[in-house]
Amino acid sequence: MVSKVLVRLRRLSKRLAGSHFVGNVVTVGGGIAASQAIALAFSPLLTRLYGPEAFGVAAAFATAVSIVTPLATLGYATAIVMPDRDEDAGALARLSICCALIVSPSSLLLIHLGRPWLVRWAGLEETPWVLYLIPLALVSSAFLSVTNQVAIRQSLYRAKARAYVGSTFLTNLAKLAGGMLAPSGILLILLTLAGTALNFLVQLLSVPRQDVLKFRHWFGLGGLSNAARTQRDFALYRMPQSVLRAASIGLPILLLTSLFGAGPAGQYAITVLMLGAPVMLLGDAVGEVFYQKITKAIACQSAEVGNLIKKATLVLLVLGGITFGIIAIYGGWIFPTAFGAQWSRAGEYSQWIALWMIAMLASRPAVSAMPALYLQKILLIYEMIVTACRGLALYAGSRFGDDLSSVAAFSLVNVAGYVALISVVAFKQIFASRSTSRVS
Q1: DSSP states of 305-348 as a string?
Q2: In this structure, are residues 419 and 361 in contact, taking their beta carbons and an 8 Å threshold?
């Protein structure tokens, strides 16, 4: 019996070792792992140099940027993987850049006109001028998004991973040096923006420049109207969904800043940053490769679509349970020990946020499959409902408890939301399978 199991495991390991999909996941995962290892290695030093208040200011700005970033390309950058022809992918790259070059100056005008309200909303009363950095962040994020999606389309995972690792190391090194000289939230903001630009430049220079990868093909007006029409679902549904998702995820930062000050917001920000590392490692590595694989499988009307989603979801659920289960139990001790006594509240946050991260990780295959399954309208409706529920949870927690109650309620709503999302995709696949069986 034992020998049969060993033989099966040996065959499985050989099959996985020869799998192109697994190889791509390992490449992407290796780059993300190295980047997260760098960030984690620097974090105990940075948290002692900057403190919760500095991290809170940087987190408030990052939240404001993350909410408007999907507007930069109107969601079209994500569609670059979809077309069969490189010419159509190039048109989508041009469309994304054109959108960014229009949206960025427009955002500058809106920021200037609405600065008093935006400053209060983002909790940046002491540093209102940093809002003028948002247009710059939009442009840099747009170029990086196009570069990322082109690299995914061409399966250039190794070059993408190298660029991410290099920019992460240099950015954290600069933060450490700056923290020794003049630590502040403003410095964290400026260096983060510099890191985004550096990631784009390194990635652009390290990939083979041919076809859609040629930088000059990203500029011009050829094929824009057809690209906008063909992939309009990304602008109509994916972009608003991304904005809503960023806004709802950023709600705790804004609420904690406005109600309790920058300190609790910084505690929350460092918690999400640390716990988000495994999610980025596992979720992004699988998600980027899975997105390409599931798109091709659906296009070929493969019967394995449902099994692909189910297997990936179960694997990530188990890995997430192992990784974050430890934090859910011992997080209250781990955080102050690792980052200093002033981060004890972050440890209490982590025990609730760990549950949210398990559900988020398990949902990555379902989320990756939704564009190819034409479920983006449902995804938008889902985000609208979940955003409202997240806001109510935060409000109830702050009104009837304290900052910890808000974080706990927010985390539990996220768990329920991701479970619902996985269920929607599962029912869609069950219905599709039954329909195919009837036809056959």
Answers
A1: HHHHHHHHHHHHHHHHHHHHHHHHHHHHHHHHHHH-GGGHHHHH
A2: no
How far is it, in rounded angstroms, from Cα 346 to Cα 422?
29
Residue 58: closest CA among 170, 176, 164, 190: 190
Q: What are the tens digits of pLDDT across the range 1-57?
A: 445 544 454 554 455 445 555 555 555 555 666 777 787 788 888 888 888 888 888
Residues 6+ apart with CB under 8 A from 143: 97, 100, 200
Output the six-digit token pair for 356. 């949210």
Eight-state DSSP code of residue 281 = I
How far apart are alpha carbons 221 and 284 in whole angstroms? 32
CA neighbor of 191 nearest in space, from 82, 79, 183: 183
Contacts of 431 (CB under 8 A, 6+ apart): none
Q: Tens digit of pLDDT for each residue in 75-97?
A: 888 888 777 787 788 888 888 88
State the Cα–Cα distance between residues 11 and 290, nearest whole angstrom: 23
Q: What SS3 state is found at 300?
A: coil
pTM over 0.85: no
